[in-house]
Amino acid sequence: MKLCNICHKISATDQDHLDCVQRRSIELEDENFKNNIPEKLTLSKNTQELGVEVRALLEHLSKSKDSDE
């Protein structure tokens, strides 16, 4: 038995819990997706072509990304 490196609880196997590994993987994928949104839509180049709601959403995501760093 050993401790899971992610949740720090006892693991019956000598590996991290599968659900912890999958959760961490999903969180990293979500973070990468969120960080790449402005680049994918070239937000800095043509913001006037996007709808008001989409611009507001992207600005909010960009601000939350900047505050996380």
Largest sheet: 2 strands, antiparallel
Mean pLDDT: 78
What are the low-pLDDT stretches, counting only 5+ consecutive residues below 50? none
DSSP summary, beta strand count: 2
Account of the protein in words:
This protein is mainly α and 69 residues long. The chain is 58% helix and 6% strand. It is built from 2 helices and 2 strands. It has helices at 18-40, 52-68, and strands at 2-3, 10-11. A two-stranded antiparallel ribbon has the order 1-2. The longest helix has 23 residues, at 18-40. The chain is rod-shaped, with a radius of gyration of 18 Å. It starts with a strand and ends with a helix. The mean pLDDT is 78.
Main traits of this protein?
69 residues; two-stranded antiparallel sheet; mainly alpha; rod-shaped
Reconstruct the topology from this structure.
Blueprint: E1 2-3, E2 10-11, H1 18-40, H2 52-68
Antiparallel strand pairs: 1-2
Helix pairs in contact: 1-2
Short description:
With 69 residues, this protein is mainly α. Helix content is 58%, strand content 6%.
